Amino acid sequence: MGLIASAELTELGFLTTKEIIAFSTAKVMTVQQVLDHLPKRYEDRRQFAAFPAQATGKPMCLRGVVVDCQRKGFGGRKGFHEVVVGTDDGFSDNTIVLRWFNMPYIAKILAVGHELIFFGKLKETAGKLVIDHPDFEIINDMVDASVHVDRIVPIYKNIVGISQRRLREITYRFRKDVDPDSLCEAYQVDESYPRIDAYREVHFPEAMPQAEAARRFFALEEFFILQLNVAWRKSRYDAQRGRVLGKKTSLLKAFYESLPFDLTGAQKRSVKEIVADMRRPSPMHRMLQGDVGSGKTFVAMCAALLAIESGAQVALMAPTQILAEQHFLTFCKWLDPLGVRVGLRTSAKKLDQGGSGQVQLLIGTHALLYDEDSFEDLGLVIIDEQHKFGVEQRSRLIQQGVMPDVLVMTATPIPRTLTLTIYGDLEVSVLDERPAGRGKVITALKPKAKVSDVTKFVKQQLDQGRQAYLVYPLVEESESLNAESATVEFEKWQKRLSKYEVALLHGKVSSEEKESVMSDFRDGKTDVLVSTTVIEVGVDVPNANLMVIYNAERFGLSQLHQLRGRVGRGEHKSYCILVTDGKNSAALEKLQELVQTDDGFKIAEADLRLRGPGDVLGTQQSGLADLRFIEYLADADLVREARRLADALLHEDPNLTSHSKLLDLMVDDGVRA
Fold first, then answer.
1. Is 188 inside a domain boundary?
2. CB of 498 within 8 A of CB of 458?
3. Least-confidence region, from 332-341, 390-399, 541-550
4. Which tens digits make up the pLDDT trace of 206-231?
5. Do 343 and 366 belong to one domain?
6. Three-class SS state of 99
7. Cα–Cα distances in Å, from 526 out to 499, 516, 550, 618?
8. pLDDT tens across 262-286, in order?
9. Range of the domain at 256
10. Is residue 38 part of a domain?
């Protein structure tokens, strides 16, 4: 009889106590959990490439022999260990230098004569080919070489205390000895593909297409559970009893009549969708998705007025104090004349506008989560930049009401596959038109831009009465990162633009100082704002028509698009200049996407393709953190198949009464928002 998949590792005789502790620390307790620790990548060790003559800039897997080991630098733990590796065939004089900084134990591991397989990105330093901190294995020490060389070899995410080759040997043994009938799966997503075969081919494939097929099998299984959760939550929400709001529309009509412009067709369509939701007895769960400058705020105002005239209170939560205060000023401007009482709650401020009586619309940051006394009858919750909040934070605010309607907003265009996967339990309204009267934004990519040229252009715009943002990736200088910082460059810009008012804004300044700096910039007292990405959302200064982004290659496309959205908010012709060192051709190609289009959805698709879903949405806040196959979220066919399977199962078994294992995997997080 083979190994039972559910067997505890402590029951097995061939693992050492240290190995069991290491697995336990990584929350790996059973044979199946070891098998479920899937490879993060593979190395083809059937045939190794020849040592290159120059740096490729790409990761490479090579095989060689240590010909020299040296410790360089100064005493103590500082300095670095340098290992020179030559070819093991004797036909080439090429060598590659492997370096490890502040890792003195490397000297005890590697010695002249060791045969290595090593993996890393080659660069050229002082005329030498160098790889810093490479992955490596010593072939001489391998007990069962057939598991480690002359095949496609799995490389796993590290488990501290267990080497790659030992982890590979353990996995190989488990895969070979496990009883196929003991392997557990909550639901068989592919009847034609036995799970034991999937494990064999995902860990030790004979060819890469096998590995890819196995990974897609496990990805489909994972996405099925994700989609089932989404569909399960949606069915639960649809069955809940909420309250009917939005029957009265006098305030909404008065608001429409007070506007000096007409809403766009997309805004009117979204308002109609929201009205229809609010009038249903089940609670609204809708996402308002709109590109920068598409007018989400006015749609949110319409929703708020419908709830307020129905006698309910409204809460609007924003992720930053700057954004909350911006919303407060905007809502007061438009709603004060209608007699709506608007309040502000942040950690630093408590303001109530619009006369006496209880606040009808309360705008704030996380401080709203702890201000329960302000809500007697919370009927509508609006969450701006929703992906900046965790599920628990959203639920805590929502639970201050009794099944309130929920409207979440995002200015980050989300590709269709991600909308379906992460927000599939929400109805979606899309603002795909820009309001009239917005200036055109010209985007230019400037590799190796001269300071004098940029300064001259900035002065030209300032002389015309405009304002400018100068954005940097870092707050302060960093020894480890080759990028410019806002604090250092601020002093330089003060000298270059001595005739103008230049201010500094970043995440480390106090809330009071942030407010003062932004207030001066909004009021035109400051001409130039040197900043980090703290201005990414919520800053609305129509007179600012120029943004220069330094080290643009360090930002994702969606973030750059968000930053660009801070200009072009008035009638003036606007400019976004992307400055880069020009050394990375892939980065230049990426930035060209931004130059060629201002369509946020196209940019989001490109960002998804280039960086993956985790970077696009932020895994911690979007619920993606625990996914093993996050890269497959860009695979529309796989996502749709997972959704099809989930919908089909729920149609057949709405309460999962016949699928107890799946029922245990359903997560109820209060209300999804």
1. no
2. no
3. 390-399
4. 999 999 999 999 999 999 998 898 88
5. yes
6. strand
7. 11, 11, 20, 33
8. 999 999 999 999 999 999 988 898 9
9. 250-431
10. no
